[in-house]
Amino acid sequence: MRFLLLVFVMFITTNMSAQSYKKYTDEDTKELIYKGKMTFADLQKEPEFKWYRDGVSSYTPNAEEISTLKPVLKNYTFVVIVGTWCSDTHDILPKFRKVLQACNYPAEKVTMYGVDIEKKSLNKEEEKYHLKHVPTIIVYKDGFEVSRIVESLNFDSVEADLVHIIFEESSDDSSGE
Questions:
Q1: Average model confidence (pLDDT) for the chain?
Q2: Does the pTM of the predicted model rise above 0.70?
Q3: What is the CATH number of domain 19-174?
């Protein structure tokens, strides 16, 4: 009996933490909004998010940049804030996911939040992370923010931006200042 109770509690706890977003269609834009904490798997299984599935499957990251990222990316974590209604999110998020997959980076190390059209989340993450635009990909190392990708890329690809962020951060660490 205790075993069954333990299994039940674990099932409920896992399911509660796995999906903590609100899903609805915006009355004005008719866009499907995910608001709150979500995962790549949530986006993958949503029938209306063809943009996400197609974007992941069609993107081919730069192999040289992936080989540069692969051995070091494990030292970083990410907080990603997206608008499922946003064209910039539709462009960048699937590419970011594909880069992570190419680097064998565990999806569980990414914390992702969706915001509505007013850029509000369920638990004020927009305030906690000082959100200005979506998508925002915040790069952390050892619990400290290293840099961000905000709304658009600075270089020609997600992986190029990440290489620049990580190796710029590494050179700052080794400068001795």
A1: 89
A2: yes
A3: 3.40.30.10
